């Protein structure tokens, strides 16, 4: 049994390193469908279930301190690629489609929560809000919301399972939708002129070196400390807007500012942010216990309801706004899937429009945390 905080963090880092090595260096088909974050969650939760991590103040304080310290710089670094100047160039119709997609997902969570509230855990709204952050942004937004609202680790495990299972099915559906896009566009009487000239060239990056790594780590951690101090002196508003919320809001805005400067093109920002994300997820997972997984199917049902509402709203919107299937599918994938999957779906329609998928996903990465927190507030009021 491990009761020392340093040993505890060492085990989580070793587990993370092993999972990343296997998933990146071994060509097993299962790794195409099961993200490394999910494997890490199950691995850390399994260690806790069998009693590897003891119940000690050293472990609790180490995990809490590291998680709180890494959340703001992780969000900050992930936004380095989110250049608002490029996003604005998408045009009003594409941006409207993206925002309607995000709103339909939030509406889906409200409907699912109202329908299943009596059977869910009293704090299920916090976990569903974290899932809403993931389905409008990404995994980093999910753990950010979990850290702010303190959703119970076991319930967070349920929504992580829902995220993985339904995301995989939804990605297959969106990828396959390219085959009947022409018939769908004829039905909606869509115009595609707003898609012209949307392709943008990727900016070149210098290779990752010691200077870029030290600059990114030093700058992001220093900024995180400053944002944490600022958040501690700003007023708390309700249960959601607390010191952590203020810190993440500050670094999110600064991340957008830096993205439009030469510093935003520094190589290695996404890699370092991903390392931080693995550590944070490992810490959260280490507080989970598999003995209560029997409730997971109920949360899976909630996820299905969310996607059904989302699908209905998007079809109605497409008919009313004469939207083409490309923007619907890519906006939906950018929300539910993120930056790794949106370009793949975009390429199924037209390779020249892959940057649209990237920009959609980056916009979601900025919005996801705040959409998730708004969802928590909505569900808590029901």
From TrEMBL:
Cytoplasm in keyword set: no
InterPro entries in UniProt: DUF819
TM stretches of this protein: 6-23, 30-53, 94-116, 128-149, 155-180, 210-231, 243-263, 275-293, 299-318, 325-346, 358-379
Top-level division of the source organism's lineage: Bacteria
Pfam families: DUF819
Alphabetical UniProt keywords: Membrane, Transmembrane, Transmembrane helix
Entries under PANTHER family matching the protein: DUF819 DOMAIN-CONTAINING PROTEIN (PTHR34289:SF8), PROTEIN, PUTATIVE (DUF819)-RELATED (PTHR34289)
Record protein name field: Membrane protein
Source organism of the structure: Streptomyces daqingensis
